[in-house]
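Re: your question about tRNA(Ile)-lysidine synthase

S., sorry for the slow reply, the queue was backed up all week. Below is exactly what I fed in.
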Amino acid sequence: MAQRLTSTDLKEALSACGVPDGAPLAVAVSGGPDSLCLVLLASEIANVVCLTVDHGLRPESAAESATLEKLMADKGIPCHRLVWQGKKPEANIQAEARIARYHLMNDWCVANGVGYLLTAHHQDDQAETLLLRLARGSGVYGLAAMPPTSNMPGTDGRITLVRPLLGVPKKQLMATLEAMKVGWLEDPSNKAMQFDRVKVRLFLENPPLEGLRADRLAATAGRLRRTRDALEYYENRWLTENVEYRHDGTLMFDPAAFDSVPEEIMLRAIASMCRTVSGERYVPRMEKLERAADAMRAPVFSGLTLYGVQFIPVSGTQVLATRELRAAQGRVPVAEGGSWDNRFDISAKGDIAGLEIGPLGQEGWNRALKAWPDIRQTTLPLAARIVLPAVFDGEDPLAVPHLEVALGRGNAVSLSLKSHGWPKK
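Result:
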C-alpha cells in the first residue's frame, strides 16, 4: 500500500514553490481524491479557502457541489461555489471548461486579495500530458512538464498558480484519504472513453513496455522542462535585444536578426510576438511559424497575417507586428477595472455613462482626422492606426489614447498595456 502524504510533506513542497508561511491560500477542489487530499492537508498548515466550480454540464453537478460544500463545512474550511454561466460549447468541452474554471477562480482570487491558487496536478497528470502531446506532434515546449509555479494569465503577477504535488503519484493521494477515512466524488467523465485523456490513463495502467510507467514519463517531462527553460532564457534575451516593445501594443524588429540565433529560438520568438500582440494565451502551430519565418526572411517580404497579428514591412528592413482588425474585440462598455481585447486594462473615472471602447476602424479614423488633424503625422501604417483602441460616444471618437488626443469625457479614460509575459529589460 502506498505511503500516505502528510501536512509536513505539503508544507515542505509549498516552501520549495516559494509560498511564504502564513500566506492565505485558495485551493481548486473538484471533490475528487487529488484536490480533496490537497485542501485537507493544506487546511492543517495554512489559512485556506476551497474554490469549486459548477460547470453545469451534468444534471448532478449542483448536487455534487452541495456534497462538497457540506464536507468542507464539516471540516471547518470555507467553501465558495463558482458557477459557469452562459451557453456551453458543443466541442472541445473539457478544454473550454478548463479555461472557464481558471477564469472564475482567477477572478475570485483577485477580488478577494488571495495571491496563491493551489491545484492538485500530480505525477500521473504529468505522464498523461506528455503522452497526449507526443501524440499531437508537440516539440520540446509542449512536452515539457508543468512548472511548479506560474503566473495566472491576465493578473500581471498578482496571482500565482502553485502545483505542489507534481512529484506525488495519484495512488499516494488516494491512500492518504483512505487513512483519513474520507470518501471522494467520482466524476463520470473520468471514465468516458470519448476523451483522449481517459484512453491514455487506461494505457498507463497496463503499458506495453516497462519504461512507460508514470514515474519515468514524469521524470522525462521534468528533464524536458529544464531544456525548455534554457531555450526560453535565450529566446527572451533575443527578444529584449532585438524587438522594440511599444506602448501601443505593437512590436518593431528586423528579420535579419533571425540569423543571429538557432532556428528554434527564432521560431519561439515569433510565437511570443504573436501571443503578445494578439493577447491570446496559446501560440500558432509550428508549421505556421516555420512558413512565417521563411516569408519574413525572403528577399522581398510583402507582409503576412498570423494568429490575429499582421506583420507589415515598414521603413528600411523593419517589420511592424500589429493586431489584425478583424480579429480584435469589438466595442465594449467603458468600466473601471475592465479590459479590452485581453490586451489593455481600462482605468476610468467621472462621467463615463454610455461610453464604449473598441478599435478605431476606418470610419473612426476619418472622424478622428476631422477632430484632430495633427494625428495625420503619425508614422504608424494605416493597418496599425485603425486597430488602436479608441473611446467612443456613439459613432464619434472622444479619445485615441495612444495618439494622445481626447475630447471632453474622453479624458476620463486611460489604458495600460498587458505584458503577457513579455521579457523586461
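The CA atoms of residues 378 and 403 lie 8 Å apart. Residues 246-325 form one domain.

Happy to talk it through on Thursday.
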